[in-house]
Amino acid sequence: MKKASINLTAFFSLFIIFLSMTACNQDKKNQTATDLPPGTHAVDVIEVIQTSNYTYLQVFENDQKFWIAIARTEAKTGDVFYFTNAMEMKDFKSKELNRTFPSILFVNDPSTTPPTANKMGQSPGKITAKRLTDISVEPLKDGITISELFKNKANYAEKSVKIRGVVVKYNKNIMGKNWAHIQDGTESGDSYDLTVTSMDAVEEGNIVTFEGTIHLEKDFGAGYAYDVIMEDAKAIEIKTNGDASL
Predict the structure, then answer these.
(1) Is the N end or the C end of the chain the one with fewer CB atoms within 10 Å?
(2) CA neighbor of 234 nearest in space, from 212, 217, 218, 215
(3) pTM of the full predicted structure?
């Protein structure tokens, strides 16, 4: 009887600790919820599945459960993640898991730190990459620069062009394509970064010459919108760039 009493006491002690941790985590989320910029999601992790490239998280938000995928990172049940940019994929099959998700969000900007309005570098719905300084790329004789593209984007709409830049951000195998952000050190107004979709594999830091079709005002939904994007591009030349600070 004494042993049973000790076990019962231990059970209640652990239960109280669990409730306290849950309450603290929820209080943290509630305290920041009202301060979050519009369009920001705050989700509680309830299941974690790790693969070689991605971390799959079943999350809970506003009484709804759903799945998100982020670049592989350490995560555990009870964590809170924040994000603004995500692309929904329906009937997505993970070959590594041999599992099909009826719906999953591929999150572009996951964070465990709640963002504030003055920390947001852009409004939701416009995807770009952090601007890198000290980039200098030799222009193509038979191509264009990012500055020329954005300055005269209407002239290049639905046309195939060549452009060279440093890959500053890269995500592979999303919607069956690889997604690269390139910069060449030129700009037009606030536009300095071009998103490129391709079946060809590249790496961050590569200097790549892409040839592809330019599309304007392309909206893939779930916050993935682009004023200008190059699609179905071929990486016709790839060079390493040891000087790029990524």
Answers:
(1) N
(2) 212
(3) 0.54
